[in-house]
Write a structure and sequence with these properties.
mainly alpha, 2 domains, 20 helices
Length: 454
Amino acid sequence: MPISPDVPAYVCYAVVVIVGLIVALSTVRKLLSDLEDRFAFAATWLLLLIYTLLPVALFWLLDYTSAIRDTALFAAIFVAIAYQQIFAGSVNDYAVPGPARAFWAPFQAWAKTIVDRITTKVQLHRQRFNDNTLAAIESDSDKQAALTQLLTTRGLLPGIQGDLNALPQDAESARIRVQWNALKNDVSAPFGDALVRSKIISRKQRWWYLERGRATIVSWAICSFLIALTLVGWWAAFRPSSNQLSLNPEAQRVKLWYYRWRLRKLNTSPQDLHRTEDFVERLAARAQLDAARAPRPPSAANAPDSAPVPDYLKPLDFVLGGVLHDFCSGAESPDQADHTLPAVYKIHTPALDSVIVPQLLDCLQTPNPDLRLRIKRVLAQIALSDFPQLPQPDARLIAWVPVKDEPLDQIDCYARGWKAWWLPKLGQIVTYSDACLKDFTTAMEQPVLAPAKP
């Protein structure tokens, strides 16, 4: 929907859940319209949950197939309301893949099975009340007299007298059942109130069986559990750290996961990509403030080959490092690289080199030559951007064009050459002895520098 406001994806998914829940409640009430105690059974809540999650799954699927964007607010509202018609294929603008559309008919059959099961349980619940009450009346002469008096007061006794006279004198249970059915079918006055006043049942029994007491208890129990689960999840995800200015990933891991996902996402909107870049830039700015207060890193002469990531860079390492690490396997497509790597370059600053560059260097040996080429280009661009005053990497490193079936020793040689140029800039020692590195004299003879303070 091109005219739709573009909002963060989590807002759209929240809208789908809320609107989907409202639509699901309406659907379940319609399916179980004849059953007042419908929410007294777990199967009803399962049905409600499935109907609530269906539009969420459909919204994700339509975004995955690029039929919509998951940041389009109007699309989120429409999918949440009309998801049944979309699954049925009645909405041409929101076509779902064939397998997903084929799912709808079996799902409706399954839902009908659940409805039938709930109907049976409701009938059993009502029958249990009838059986318990009849058993109590049969064992108590006072309740038998109260039942007869109640029928007489309501003028129901003459209407069943013929049925009673037709029964044998010793068929007391049958006589009580005829009287009970006549009273139960009378709609001239509240059934439960009359039973309580006549002391045939207790107020507790009336509330439990006739006033949806069981449904109330089950509903409160399930809602309380869901609210508690939500609060616990919210606290676990967003609990504050001891230092409110801390960038500890444990204190904001959900938000970091979210932006890592958005940074990798191919069919995101320009507005959403801008929001993601803005978030990472704010993380970098906060990291620079924390770095100014942090102890100065060790010099290159004493730095280990693989220094740990400082605490103030961990959130950035979680977002950017997690995104770049996926390139090392070679499974990412060139389209993914063309989307992610320019965004990473745009976000980068000299303060982020220690997060971004080691990941890129490791991925230079990915088996995918297209990814190697794109990674090499980003490394060259970052080098020129952050160290313009220094000699740039050897021209042969810059000119390297990875190809399919490139010898592994040649790939390793070029990767080591890039590391030989970059790692000293990050404050790490380079102790390579491979013969191929002797060709990269320009790169090896550059001065070793400690990383600049952000």
